[in-house]
Amino acid sequence: MTSKPVLFFKIIISQSLQQGILKLPKNFSRKYGASLPKPVFLKPPNGTEWKVDWTMHDADVVFENGWKEFVKYYSINHGYVLKFEYNGNSKLGVQICDKSGLEIEYPVNVNQQEKVNIIEISDEEVQAFDEMPQRQNNRRKSPKSQLNQRNGNQSQGTSFLKSTSTSIEKELDGDRKETQTTSKVKSPLAETSGTLKEAEKFTSKNPFFIINVTKKFLDQSRPNVPIDFVKKYLKQKQFAMVRFRDKLWPLKLLPYVTKKESIRLSTGWNLFAKASELQAGDVCIFELINMKNSEFDVHFFRCHS
């Protein structure tokens, strides 16, 4: 056991990524390699553990089996910097910084969600909600049944459109003014948007809202969550947890000061947009599947096939 934590850094290079291995610093290998347990378990800040086997090559500790999966899961690229903390046992703390030097937003593994104190929200802060409606297995219906459900279940939150057709037109033109409404009146522009029209056919017994992805949402601006949806289903919530690729992605719900009350998807949005390869013109539907934990399924309608 070490008397105090041993810290070391590794800059990730493309050669290491291609080989699927990681050589630890020579000084660390020389001093601690003989006592380092096999295997080791990498522990990022989100509470997950990653088993990694290592071998000794030319007096260097080299991470092998399990390392490639860790890199893929956290989308580690050339130029990233990893900070390791060794406490004399098999568990190594690790923090990941991207090319800018900022620590990444860590997605939460779905299989770990019951064990992890997600983004430091305590159980006491989680508000109790009414029981969620039963999920609908067959979401695709005939045009007639779609029309009946969309007209008849408005009060149940079946469809919360992100904006009116007027605001959609402004977004596509790059206008920074954003409005929130649940109106379903369509403009000629909305009629010609095949992606949006296809997304609007989506039905579910669960509440959901639509975000029409624009270029500014992929740059510096952030998309709004319809305020009616927030008031009805996300009261006192700080984060939305979005399921994607067997992970839970925390997206911070940030109140935004404008002339009208507004809630935006803030911290975590950039990472999610990058991981899901969003492009301007895509449409996302966020379907609330677990009200207590603010957990959403996301459905993508791509503008490019």
Order of helices and strands: EHEHEEEEHEEEHHHHEEHEEEHEE
Shape by Cα distribution: elongated
Radius of gyration computed on alpha carbons: 23 Å
| Percent helix range | 10-25%
> What average pLDDT do the residues reach?
74
- Helix count equals 9
Taking the sheet with the most strands, its summary is:
8 strands, mixed
Low-confidence stretches: 110-192
SSE layout and pairings?
Layout: E1 6-11, H1 14-19, E2 22-23, H2 26-32, E3 40-43, E4 50-52, E5 54-57, E6 60-63, H3 67-73, E7 81-86, E8 91-97, E9 108-109, H4 143-152, H5 165-172, H6 188-192, H7 194-199, E10 208-212, E11 224-225, H8 227-233, E12 239-244, E13 247-256, E14 262-265, H9 269-275, E15 283-290, E16 295-301
Parallel strand pairs: 3-8, 12-16
Antiparallel strand pairs: 1-7, 2-6, 3-4, 5-6, 7-8, 9-13, 10-15, 11-14, 12-13, 13-14, 15-16
Give your account of this protein's structure:
By secondary structure, this protein is an alpha+beta fold. It is built from 9 helices and 16 strands. The strands form 3 sheets. Strands 9, 10, 11, 12, 13, 14, 15 and 16 form an 8-stranded mixed beta sheet that branches. 29% of the residues are buried. The model is unreliable at 110-192 (pLDDT under 50).
